[in-house]
Amino acid sequence: MTLPALGWQGLVVLATFGISLLIATYCTYAERVIAAFLQDRVGPDRAGPFGLLQPLADAVKLFTKEEFFPAGANRALFVFGPCLAMVTALMSSAVIPFGNFLQFGDTIIHLQGIEINVGMLYVFGIVSLGVYGIMIGGWASNNKFSLLGAIRAASQNISYEIAMGLALIAVLMMSGTLSLREITLQQSVAGEWHFWNIAKQPLGFIIFIVCAFAETNRTPFDLPECETELIGGYHTEYSSMKMGLYLFAEYINVFVASAVMSVLYFGGFNFPFQYELRDWLVSSRGLELVTAQNIITILGLVGLFAKIFGFIFFFMWVRWTLPRFRYDQLMRLGWTILIPLAIFNIMLTGGLITFGVIK
After folding, report:
1. Is residue 243 classed as helix, strand or coil in its secondary structure?
2. What tens digit of pLDDT does each residue of 220-279 get?
3. Which of 27, 38, 65, 73 has its CA 20 to 30 A from that of 115?
4. Per the record, what are the reactions this protein catalyses (predicted)?
């Protein structure tokens, strides 16, 4: 007895959520290890071998800490804020194509939770909702520093979503679709890297990754938290697992942003010479075409996660290398530099497409 197609896709969705949570959990460990390496000191080394159980110890600590509600806080919204931030972060990972497909007999399993033809629009919509979790939590805390952090988060996200959306338009002009799966498959021609969008949209990628730092509130764009000015920003009054939900949501957003950049600009699950390798497995090793394709799909899955982990490392490297912007510098960069550059990139892309330089 086999599961229907809907059942398999349901398992893929659950696996996607589970992987997102697992990666977010161990991002906390990676953050500490990378920070220790860059600062020439010893990182976590007590909980388990090489400190690998440190995230589990942190989780136990967060679950067992005392629940705290500030005086005058709106209790319902105080709990709802971090929950909304976490749910929206998880939902945004559902449409990312982590691999092509696996075929077992007549059963075909697409390694993507949900395939919709407006996948990129879905990601943008869900990410836009995530800021409401920050706004609600900051307002419900009845703390002026939390409220200031929430207002900063809202204005920052609105400002940088414009430039990010304009950078995306250039990719859509070339692909003609909002489906993340279709954008990935269009970059699979001959499996070579120079067919990836990074070779056609280097300026768009730079704009996109800068905006991704701002959207995920990572240094040097972590003005909503900014402990030197706002104590801890929008989660100043939070403790226990409610605080943990905000922290996990941030790391899941970093994971999703890394996955989206890998899909849009670095070929997603494609890798060089994938078709030559598939044909070699069939001709030289005598494998069936379906088996060879399954192997290529698994290698593509591994390759995509290697790209994602590379971007996550870059996020962490920048955090422990660059200083934080002032708020006026943050807004000036978004409105007077990135948005005009993104508009210029759209016009340049349109011209190159018109004259047949890129397709």
Report:
1. helix
2. 888 767 665 666 678 888 888 888 888 889 899 999 999 999 999 998 999 888 888 998
3. 27
4. a quinone + NADH + 5 H(+)(in) = a quinol + NAD(+) + 4 H(+)(out)
> Residue 322: left (phi > 0), alpha (psi -120 to 50), or beta?
beta
**325-343 per-position pLDDT tens digit:** 888 888 899 999 999 999 9
Q: Which residue has the tokens 């900014």?
A: 226
> Average pLDDT for residues 189-196, to the nearest whole number?
64
Contact 89, 259 (CB under 8 A): no
Residue 69: pLDDT over 60? yes
Distance spanning both ends of the chain, measured CA to CA: 46
Do the beta carbons of residue 113 and residue 93 sit within 8 Å? yes
Q: Which of 326, 352, 338, 309 is nearest to 206 (CA)?
A: 338
- More confidently predicted of 224 and 57: 57
Q: What is the pTM of this model?
A: 0.91
Cis peptide before 224 (omega within 30 of 0): no
Those residues with Cβ within 8 angstroms of residue 340's Cβ, 6 or more apart along the chain or in another chain: none
Is-cis flag, bond preceding 340, omega within 30?
Answer: no
Rounded to whole angstroms, the Cα distance separating 197 from 182 reads: 13
Structure tokens at 356: 């047949």
Sequence length of the chain is 359
* Mean pLDDT for the stretch of residues 118-122: 89
Distance, in Å, from the CA atom of 270 to the CA atom of 61, rounded to the nearest integer, reads 40
The pLDDT tens digits for 137-166 are: 888 888 888 888 888 888 888 889 999 999
| Residue 121: how many other CB atoms lie within 10 Å | 16
According to DSSP, residue 338 is labeled I
Which conformational region is residue 313 in: left (phi greater than 0), alpha (psi within -120 to 50 degrees), or beta? alpha
Structural element, H or E, at residue 274 = helix 274-283
Q: Specify the pairing of strand 107-110 against strand 101-104.
A: antiparallel
Q: Determine which helix (DSSP H) or strand (DSSP E) holds 236, and give its type and residue range.
A: none
Find the mean pLDDT for residues 104-123: 86
**SS3 (DSSP) at 109:** strand
